[in-house]
From TrEMBL, chain A:
Keywords: Acetylation, Coiled coil, Cytoplasm, Golgi apparatus, Membrane, Phosphoprotein, Protein transport, Repeat, Transport. Part of the AP-3 complex, an adaptor-related complex which is not clathrin-associated. The complex is associated with the Golgi region as well as more peripheral structures. It facilitates the budding of vesicles from the Golgi membrane and may be directly involved in trafficking to lysosomes. Involved in process of CD8+ T-cell and NK cell degranulation. In concert with the BLOC-1 complex, AP-3 is required to target cargos into vesicles assembled at cell bodies for delivery into neurites and nerve terminals. It comes from Carassius auratus. Residues 660-805 form the AP-3 complex subunit delta domain. The gene is LOC113064994. Residues 740-753, 843-852, 974-986 have a biased composition (Basic residues). This is AP-3 complex subunit delta-1.
TrEMBL record, chain B:
Part of the AP-3 complex, an adaptor-related complex which is not clathrin-associated. The complex is associated with the Golgi region as well as more peripheral structures. It facilitates the budding of vesicles from the Golgi membrane and may be directly involved in trafficking to lysosomes. In concert with the BLOC-1 complex, AP-3 is required to target cargos into vesicles assembled at cell bodies for delivery into neurites and nerve terminals. This is AP-3 complex subunit sigma-1 isoform X1. Belongs to the adaptor complexes small subunit family. Residues 1-147 form the AP complex mu/sigma subunit domain. GO terms for cellular component: AP-3 adaptor complex; cytoplasmic vesicle membrane; Golgi apparatus. GO terms for biological process: Golgi to vacuole transport; intracellular protein transport.
């Protein structure tokens, strides 16, 4: 056997391996393709062999060839074979090849599912690792669905190496199978706090990637991330989290406020540039989201700008680039802060690095103002000259136009200057952006009426010198400008001084070399010019000039009639015939100018680019409805062979057109216009594509005369510079004029003299050179103010927009292979975890609908079942997840319950950094203030003492409790109207004769009114916790934390001595165990006593709690040493502390008038609860609410009572309890809806227990 | 997300390509060519970021690259990645290669494409950064290398001997990328763990 293997490998060693292949390719440089094709033939032979080693070698070579661009998908099946090898070496080769060339279209992928599943559960971590890596590259929706559960299991693998890979790959799974997101999310979230930094980082990575696409669903994680941000030292993690916050802040401005401080701290403290940069970026995002209301707003901005300046000034080009990039973000909201660094940015324009120059250009865009526009553009024009013939120059050109045209030419004070700039730009050779310049020319000429005269003159010059633009080059991008020039000259020909000359220029034979669409415009506008010329000469006795013009056209137009371009030809022959006709009329001395001009009459108004989209669909128009009934399927099928019928069909459809109503026609006309706008032969993006003949309101547009102090034509080549000087002078003049009136000459001189030392002018000081009317773009009537939905429907992340806070539904379980019975038995905890809680959940859901008796039975049954479960972990899971989930699902069933999810409210709480103090609360209910205030204050003082008294005696036997119960009932019947504190009284009374050391039986059918509950117990010790935590509030000392004291009774059940008890809980974000100063956050507290056998004692622990609107659960451990005569052992007891919302309520008396005012104030939000099958007497019910939930009865009338309580943070909680026929309805109001919701849930639970 | 990782030499010959989105082989080659065209015409001391890897993804993406001796290492990433972080990641990648190949040079990459892929797989998975700690990466790579060797066992011995003979006349190019040569100012990310 061994011999065979050796023999096989000896055969093999003369096969080509990867190295040989590479060497071979390198040795066959001249006929590489041929060599490779022979190699591929060899590989094909090798793949046919049975030896897996040979196959793996072949696949390895294929991977190399794939990199060189050879398609190797034909070997997909062999790759799968190699993947399924049992040897890691080959498996890895297989997975690598698969990851390089498999994709969703590869059909053999579906064969791999089981193989991958096997590898995922392999005992060797590297098999699993390799499978995960491979899968991450080629996961398909099917694979994702089938393997999601396996991968989820791996997220809790013992090896961090596997865990981190499993966590990362979940992102790919989510993308392909969005349904898996909700079931997997809790575990993913858990991994954020994984002890292994790698796993943690992976989880952060995945959640950040998810949150980036759908940030709003992840807002509730903000507190967790905030904690990570302040505790993590891993820069990768920090950067990701900080980036994530950048995405979250726009959704939640309060978050931003909370972020500023830690971020600024990081900015100051970090030495890592990457971290600094991301912090600055996020601070910018925060500041953008907080438009106002930040006192130290400007300080943060200043800090950012300052730091960015340091980056930009750095010699490292990378930092410079990033600095500019971040600067451009600040620019959008705080242009002033950036503008002060103009010098630096202009400097960057000279940088040798193109990326940096481009970034600097971006910045310039936002830095211009009316004041500095000319100056900046002048600088850019210099750069344009320097950067000849590069793409950078084109970029400069577009930037100049962008800068000038931004926000409706806001910063242009002198449009003549702008036109000159545009004309100067036409001198650029070989630019691709001719059409851009052209459209700017058109736009300005149409929208700025005052400039038309000047523009026309300039365009006429351009037309005259057209040879310069078209002359020496075939790269005729710039000749597009002539299109604009011709159109402007034609359309606004009334401004032309020498229309004849321009007409002549437009009809030169050289024009025929221009592109067709330009020629067409030439011809059309020549006709317009012709009309103008005719009109000019109208009335002259000598019609010679007019006739000469006609002759010119008749001579020149035939050239265009012969044009190969249809458009040119058509227009030319039309106009030619027209002119011939006119000539005839002229010869008869008929006055034709009027008629000819009428051909081109009318004003053009610009139309907004979105105008068409905004046209509302007329009422009653259903575009999807059939106009005529469609021919039925069967009919057409039957008749198809007959040729005659198809003819008829044709007719039929034609007649359809004629039936189209007016609206439809109008719509089509619009559509056609739109089409024309998109047609390259029409002017793109310019509003001039159609004439509006009956534009109403044109007359109302004020046309202002050009200020003639500005010369119309400036001699000399760089004209725009002249304007710059003129502008300078003009501004000085303006300024001077505004000053005291003195002698004219002196004034001017002084104005110039001051030029150097005069402070910067404010924006308002700059008056436009001439009043400019920028015609706004037209919109259709009734335009819908809708924003365009730009979201790409194909975006895979859209499917991941899933609410993660909703409780899981049964149907959302990840598919588990249930058809194999062994799966359920297998110790794969995960599956057990998943299925069992849901089963019991279902049951518990049913329970509640059933009547009381059935309920009890069921509950017992489920309890018994619980006990049967041997898996400790399962039980834990149950304890943890079930009650919460059950409560939540109940909540959703009841429409009345507040829909706020627990987490969201938690976030709210976390975000309001300073919760409303009680004083402020009372301000919100001012009417009740006086009454409540005094009483509550009194209660506040007295409250902490009372339960303390009660506590020690409160441990009593069940017998006693029953007795007490009875007694209580009796007493309460007597004192129906007695208000508050009576339960305390009772407990006190009961306490007097109580005996220490009692056992509480959980299964008691009627639970006693005890506020002690079992926390945990084992054979040595029993811990009992007082349910009604004694609470006090020291808001005065601690800004926003309340303290809760928990009394725990430790009872030694064993025969041994218990000592060195140490009590510890895992702090949550919200609740923390108060530890002595100097102790670490995870240190445990020593219980200050030892327990001899059979003795019990009580210890108190103080917790600081931030949010009281949510119930809290803390996991904890008690460690102790059991010392018996022979030995001493170290023991451990796990427990869970449950802080209910009720425990934060303080029984507070309230008078009915104050109560009524409180309700009237309208500051409270309502909710309600309905309990069915409550058979206990009403007073009994009230007593329970009072006792367990710390309410006091305000007023009671028959079967209706109002109750009041107040939280330690001053929230008012009001209840109206009504009962009728076993149904209790509770209407509740509170100023904190989530607190109320939780209290109601707890009340409900109290009553569901009995 | 990292969209693609490309390594090619000064002449644009691909030495390794890893695309985290599917493209046909032709498109891949075109992307490599175009990227090379963009990157190679840049001077040595300009910034390492390039916008407009037009073929991959579009304007949201950036090319972040480093040039070591004869090789370009190019990462195409989207906006969720930190630019400076990726630059560091490239440095970590190259340093890891250097450790694993003992003074890495272009030839190592040419002849051991699979190994390069395996190292990369320990750093980046499915387009997301998996591990940035060099020693952790090396540990995992070496552990897998050991596993491979133990699997080869007796059967592998003759093959190894043959390949040793074959490799005797291998060094036909100067064996050094020498990443230490060109001092790259790494923006310091002190704790990369």
């Amino acid at each position: 056997m061994a011999l065979k293997i050796v023999k096989g490998s000896i055969d093999r060693m003369f096969d080509k391996n990867l190295q040989d292949l590479v060497r071979g390719i390198r040795n066959h440089k001249e006929d590489e393709a041929k060599y490779i094709s022979t190699c591929i033939d060899e590989i094909k032979q090798e793949l046919k062999q049975d030896n897996i080693a040979v196959k793996a070698n072949a696949v390895c070579k294929l991977t190399y060839l794939q990199m060189l661009g050879y398609d190797v998908s034909w070997a997909a099946f062999n790759i799968v074979e190699v993947m399924s090898s049992s040897k890691f070496t080959y498996k890895r080769i297989g997975y690598l090849a698969a990851s390089q060339c498999f994709h969703e279209g590869t059909d053999v992928i579906m064969l791999t599912t089981n193989q991958i599943r096997k590898d995922l559960s392999s005992p060797h971590q590297y098999d699993t690792g390799v499978a995960l890596t491979g899968l991450s590259c080629f996961v398909t929706p099917d694979l994702a669905r089938d393997l999601a559960n396996d991968i989820m299991t791996l997220m809790s693998h013992t090896k961090p190496y596997i865990r981190k890979k499993a966590v990362l790959i979940m992102y790919k799974v989510f993308l392909k199978y969005p349904e898996s997101l909700r079931p997997a999310f809790p575990r993913l979230k858990e991994k954020l706090e994984d002890p292994d930094p790698g796993v943690q980082s992976a989880a952060v990575n995945v959640i950040c990637e998810l949150a980036r696409r759908n940030p709003k669903n992840y807002l509730s994680l903000a507190p967790l991330f905030f904690k990570l941000m302040t505790s993590s030292t891993n820069n990768w993690v920090l950067i990701k989290i900080i980036k994530l916050f950048g995405a979250l802040t726009p959704l939640e401005p309060r978050l931003g406020k909370k972020m500023i401080e830690p971020l600024t701290n990081l900015i100051h403290s970090t030495s890592a540039m990457s971290l600094l940069y991301e912090c600055v970026n996020t601070v910018i995002a925060v500041l953008i989201s907080l438009s106002s209301g930040m006192p130290n707003h400007s300080a943060s901005i200043q800090l950012c700008v300052q730091k960015l300046r340091i980056l930009i000034e750095d010699s490292d080009q990378n930092l410079k680039y990033l600095g500019l990039l971040a600067m451009s973000k600040i620019l959008k909201t705080h242009p002033k802060s950036v503008q002060s660094h103009k010098d630096l940015i202009l400097q960057c324009l000279d940088d040798k690095d193109e990326s940096i120059r481009l970034r600097a250009l971006d910045l310039l865009y936002g830095m211009v103002s009316k004041k500095n526009l000319m100056e900046i553009v002048k600088k850019l024009m210099l750069h344009v000259d320097k950067a000849e013939g590069t793409t950078y120059r084109d970029e400069l050109l577009t930037k100049i136009i962008d800068i000038c045209s931004q926000s409706n030419y806001q910063y242009i004070t002198n449009f003549e200057w702008y036109i000159s700039i545009l004309v100067e730009l036409t001198r650029l050779e070989g630019t691709r952006h001719g059409h851009l310049i052209a459209s700017q020319m058109l736009d300005v000429a149409i929208r700025v009426k005052a400039i038309r005269g000047f523009a026309v003159a300039q365009m006429a010059t351009l037309l005259d010198n057209a040879h310069l633009l078209t002359g020496n080059t075939q790269r005729n991008g710039i000749c597009e400008v002539l299109y604009a020039a011709a159109w402007i000259c034609g359309e606004f020909s009334e401004h032309l001084e020498e229309p004849m000359q321009t007409l002549e220029a437009m009809l030169r034979p050289k024009v025929a070399t221009l592109p067709g669409h330009i020629q067409a415009v030439y011809v059309q506008n020549a006709a317009k010019l012709f009309a103008t010329v005719l009109r000019k000469h109208e009335g002259e006795t000598d019609s010679q000039a007019a006739q000469e013009t006609s002759q010119l056209l008749i001579d020149r137009l035939p050239l265009f009639v012969q044009s190969a371009n249809l458009e040119v030809q058509e227009r030319a022959s039309c106009i030619l015939q027209l002119v011939k006709y006119i000539q005839k009329l002229q010869q008869k001395n008929v006055e034709v100018a009027e008629e000819v001009t009428a051909l081109f009459a009318g004003e053009l108004n610009p139309v907004a680019p979105k105008a068409q989209k905004k046209v509302p669909i007329p009422e009653g128009l259903d575009l999807d409805a059939w106009i005529n009934e469609p021919p039925s399927e069967s009919e057409s099928e039957d008749e198809k062979p007959k040729a005659v019928f198809t003819k008829e069909e044709h007719k039929h459809s034609r007649s359809r057109h004629t039936e189209v109503d007016e609206k439809e026609l109008a719509r089509r006309r619009e559509a056609r216009k739109q089409e024309q706008a998109n047609n390259p032969f029409y002017i793109k993006a310019s509003p001039s594509s159609q004439k509006v003949y009956d534009a109403p309101g044109v007359e109302h547009i004020p046309v202002v005369q050009i200020d003639l102090s500005v010369p119309l034509k400036v001699p000399g080549v760089p004209m725009s510079d002249q304007y710059l000087k003129l502008e300078e002078e003009r501004r000085q003049k303006d300024k001077a004029e505004r000053k005291k009136k003195e002698k004219k000459k002196k004034r001017e001189k002084r104005g110039k003299g001051r030029k150097a030392d005069s402070g910067p002018e404010s924006e308002e000081d700059i008056r436009p050179a001439h009043q400019v009317d920028i015609v706004t773009e037209e919109m259709p009537e009734n335009a819908l103010p809708s924003d365009d939905d730009d979201k790409d429907p194909n975006d895979p992340h859209k499917a991941l927009d899933i609410d993660l806070d909703k409780p899981l539904a049964d149907s959302e379980k990840l598919p588990v292979r249930t058809h194999r019975p062994e799966v359920l038995k297998s110790p794969a905890e995960d599956r057990v975890h998943e299925s069992i809680p849901q089963e019991t959940k279902k049951r518990s859901g049913k329970e509640k609908k059933e009547k009381k008796k059935g309920k009890e039975k069921d509950r017992k049954r489920s309890k018994e079942e619980k006990k049967k479960k041997k898996h400790k972990e399962v039980e834990e899971e149950l304890l943890e997840s079930q009650p919460e989930e059950a409560v939540q699902s109940e909540e959703t069933k009841e429409a009345a319950a507040p829909p706020t999810s627990a987490e969201a409210s938690d976030l709210d709480f976390w975000l309001c950094s300073a919760p409303v103090p009680p004083a402020a609360q009372e301000e919100t209910a001012p009417s009740s203030a006086a009454a409540v205030d005094t009483s509550s204050a009194a209660a506040l003082e007295s409250e902490p003492d009372e339960p303390k008294d009660a506590e020690p005696e409160d441990t009593k036997s069940s017998k006693h409790k029953k007795k007490k119960q009875k007694k209580e009932k009796e007493e309460k019947e007597k004192k129906k109207k007695k208000r508050h504190h009576h339960h305390h009284h009772h407990s006190d009374a009961g306490g007097e004769d109580s005996v220490q050391n009692g056992t509480v039986e959980e299964e008691e059918p009627l639970p006693p009114m005890s506020n002690y509950s079992l926390l945990a117990e084992n054979s040595y010790i029993k811990m009992m916790k007082e349910d009604a935590d004694q609470v006090y509030d020291i808001q005065g000392n601690h800004q926003d934390e309340s303290k809760v004291v928990v009394s725990v009774i430790f009872e030694n059940k064993s025969d041994s001595f218990l000592k060195s008890m140490e009590f510890n809980v895992m702090d949550s974000l919200n609740s923390k165990l108060q530890r002595p100063e100097g102790a670490g956050p995870h240190d445990s507290l020593t219980v200050p006593f030892q327990l001899p056998p059979g003795v019990s004692n009580e210890a108190r622990f103080v917790f600081s709690v931030q949010s009281i609107v949510m119930p809290q659960k803390l996991k904890g451990t008690l460690t102790f040493i059991v010392k018996s005569d022979e030995s001493s052992t170290h023991e451990k007891l796990d427990f869970k502390l449950h802080f209910t919302c009720t425990s934060y309520l303080i029984t507070t008396p309230c008078y009915s008038d104050a109560y009524a005012k409180l309700l009237e104030s309208g500051d409270l939000k309502g909710s309600s609860l309905r309990l069915e099958g409550i058979s206990m007497p009403f007073h009994h019910l009230l007593a329970r609410i009072c006792f367990h939930h710390h309410f006091s009865v305000v007023e009671r009338i028959d079967s209706c009572a109002s109750m009041y309580s107040r939280s330690i943070q001053g929230h008012h909680v009001c209840l109206l309890v009504k009962t009728s026929d076993q149904t209790v309805s509770i209407d509740a109001k509170c100023d904190e809806p989530s607190l109320l919701g939780n209290v109601l849930d707890e009340i409900k639970q109290t009553f569901s227990k009995c | 997300m990292i969209k693609a990782i490309l390594i090619f030499n000064n002449h644009g010959k691909p030495r390794m390509s890893k695309f985290y989105e599917h493209y046909t082989e032709d498109t891949e080659q075109q992307i490599i060519r175009e990227t090379f065209h963009l990157v190679s015409k840049r001077d040595e001391n300009v910034c390492n970021f390039l916008e407009g890897g037009l073929l991959i993804g579009g304007s949201e993406n950036k090319l972040i690259y480093r040039h070591y001796a004869t090789l370009y290492f190019v990462f195409c990433v989207d906006s969720s990645e930190s630019e400076l972080g990726i630059l560091d990641l490239i440095q970590v990648f190259v340093e890891t290669l250097d450790k694993c190949f003992e003074n890495v040079c272009e030839l190592d990459l040419i002849f051991h494409l699979d190994k390069v892929h395996n190292i990369l797989a320990e750093m980046v998975m499915g387009g997301m950064v998996l591990e940035t700690n060099m020693s952790e990466i090396i540990t995992q790579v070496e552990a897998q290398g050991k596993m491979e060797k133990s699997e080869a066992g007796i059967a592998g011995a003759p093959a190894r001997a043959v390949s040793a003979v074959k490799n005797m006349n291998l060094p036909e190019m100067p064996k050094n990328i020498n990443i230490g040569d060109i001092s790259i100012k790494v923006p310091n990310l002190p704790s990369f763990k």
